[in-house]
Amino acid sequence: LLLARDLGCTSEDPDTVLDFLMSVPAMDLVKSQNNEELRTEKERVQRISIIFSPCVEKYGNAPFLTDYPRKLMERGEFAKVPVIIGLTDKEGMLVLAIKQPHFDLVS
């Protein structure tokens, strides 16, 4: 809801919020996620730059993710299937584009 509100949605109805977010240009979503006000104090301290992350759902009829991914992997509680991992030659360009005004701080 914080992201939707930051982008101008005033509803709290899940279907309305979903429709709103689906209508927002992707770059607006990317820019809005950099709004420091959308982060918790812990996220600010840890300098987490992406607000979209797994959400643990311990309770309910059919929880999708019952613990943090790292803990599940450490315990071997995941589907053991073949995985192909790769990258593209422009993989980091999105981060660079977002942080570009501050690029002089890291070079």
UniProtKB/TrEMBL annotation:
One of its GO terms (molecular function) is carboxylic ester hydrolase activity. Residues 3-101 form the Carboxylesterase type B domain. Keywords: Glycoprotein, Hydrolase, Serine esterase. Pfam families: COesterase. It comes from the Eukaryota. Belongs to the type-B carboxylesterase/lipase family. This is Carboxylesterase type B domain-containing protein. It comes from Homalodisca liturata. The lineage of its organism: Eukaryota, Metazoa, Ecdysozoa, Arthropoda, Hexapoda.
